[in-house]
């Protein structure tokens, strides 16, 4: 049992590192908003392994997306993770809004905010997020088109 927990924790940590590293490689998935460097991505949940999806309570379906936001404090050396409050909506081309419910996940020094969203094949979604750290509030807007695997 203990070896299984260690393996799942290691797998989760590797996934989360990959999620954060992917935006670092592409400037289009990072925006500087005041004292926050906000890394964001939205992917189909089937990219997650079944073990990772289960560990985080994420529905692993070809019609379900995972939205991942991480915020770094760009005023401090090393840019440590920053705890924030995130709210937002997803809007599709037919005008349907869905409120996103972000859950905070902490793994060591890392902090992630995860939300889920159902989608249809080739659906373009506009994300409108409000991010606040207690002293600053900023808006993050981005689009993502989802495809069914």
UniProtKB/TrEMBL annotation:
The protein's matches in InterPro entries, at most eight in alphabetical order, are given as:
DUF4426 (IPR025218)
Identify the keywords attached in UniProt to this record, alphabetized: Signal
Transmembrane as a keyword of this entry, yes or no, is: no
Query: Ranges for the DUF4426 domain?
Result: 31-149
Question: What are the boundaries of the signal sequence?
Answer: 1-27
Among its keywords, does the record have Ribosomal protein? Answer: no
Protein name, as recorded = DUF4426 domain-containing protein
């Amino acid at each position: 049992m203990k070896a299984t927990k260690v393996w799942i924790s290691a797998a989760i940590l590797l996934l989360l590192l990959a999620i954060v590293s992917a935006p670092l490689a592409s400037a289009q998935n990072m925006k500087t908003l005041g004292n926050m460097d906000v890394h964001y991505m939205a992917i189909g949940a089937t990219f997650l392994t079944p073990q990772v999806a289960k560990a985080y309570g994420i529905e692993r379906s070809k019609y379900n997306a995972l939205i991942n936001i991480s915020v770094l404090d760009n005023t401090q050396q090393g840019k440590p993770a920053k705890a924030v409050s995130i709210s937002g909506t997803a809007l599709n081309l037919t005008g349907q809004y869905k409120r996103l419910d972000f859950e905070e996940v902490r793994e060591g020094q890392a902090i992630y905010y995860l939300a889920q969203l159902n989608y249809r094949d080739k659906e373009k979604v506009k994300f409108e997020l409000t991010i606040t750290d207690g002293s600053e509030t900023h808006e993050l807007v981005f689009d993502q088109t989802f495809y069914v695997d």
